[in-house]
Amino acid sequence: MENEKDKFTIAARLKSFKYAFNGLKHFFVVEHNARIHLVAAAFAIGLSFYLNISSLEWIAILAVIVVVFVAEIFNSCMEKLSDVVSPEVNPQIKIVKDMAAAAVLMAAILALAVGAIIFLPKLF
Ligand SMILES: Nc1ncnc2c1ncn2[C@@H]1O[C@H](COP(=O)(O)OP(=O)(O)OP(=O)(O)O)[C@@H](O)[C@H]1O
């Protein structure tokens, strides 16, 4: 039988959004790396306006910005979860944290490559 909690309600969906925005607020207010990504994103968006890039180029720039933020949010989640699960030094936690950081590195490399492909020919 369907439980009260499983029922679809607009109020429950709105609450989920509230929690998601709460997570976003925490990320931008508390996590220091978020500020670095925010500055880089603002720079890329400013440069995109200045260089009057095409619609497809905008899609690529916005997509890589979001990919970097998503990777960094999950990386921060992994760090927090790891610190709760195992606050002491643990070789498996090291691998978990290193791999989460590797995901951010991959996203950042992609963002740099896409930025270079779009911006460099317009600048030089
Ligand atoms: N509990 C642990 N056991 C083993 N190694 C750890 C542990 N905690 C952290 N490390 C190692 O230290 C590195 C840095 O971990 P930490 O949680 O400090 O992330 P950080 O990258 O410094 O955090 P931030 O992204 O907030 O600057 C990890 O990638 C991992 O190699």
UniProtKB/TrEMBL annotation:
Cofactors named for this entry: Mg(2+)
Coiled-coil ranges from the UniProt annotation: none
Gene Ontology terms, MF aspect: ATP binding; kinase activity; metal ion binding
GO biological process: phospholipid biosynthetic process
List of residues binding ATP: Y19, E31, E79, K97, D98
Membrane-traversing stretches: 34-53, 59-78, 99-120
Protein location: Cell membrane
GO cellular component, one term: plasma membrane
Positions bound to a divalent metal cation: E31, E79
Listed InterPro entries: DAGK, DAGK_sf, UDPK
Membrane topology: Multi-pass membrane protein
Protein name as catalogued: Diacylglycerol kinase family protein
